[in-house]
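subagent[fold] <- orchestrator: predict structure for attached chain, return tokens only, no commentary.
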Amino acid sequence: MKQFFHQIVSSLMALLVLASTVSWTVDKHICMGRVMDISFFAHADDCGMDMDMEKSCCDDESFTVQGQDDLKISFEKFDLDQQVFLVSFVQTYFQLFKTDSEEPYAFNEYNPPPLIRDVQVLDQTFRI
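subagent[fold] -> orchestrator:
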């Protein structure tokens, strides 16, 4: 379960980094107030009407979402309080998923009492 969760989170973080670093350009071709074509990475196709008229009924719109260029965050830019918080948070987060392989047993030094006879079998008294 932990490995499956780790794979999902890793995939989502990779998609988040990809989406935030890539610049997106959306191009729309509008004819008579209706969107005729939308294109994400190339020029949108026109509707085939003549654009030579004096007052054209078609319009092209495009907008660009700029991605991040600088992704390297320096650890030295944090002040001491932020560094202490970050280190303690990461340490406690990793300790959260750590499982103890061996359970503590408090009676290692004591031997169980010897079982000389089984009273229930001798008296034929059983709890139902």
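orchestrator: received. Logging for downstream: The first helix runs from residue 2 to 21. The radius of gyration is 35 Å.
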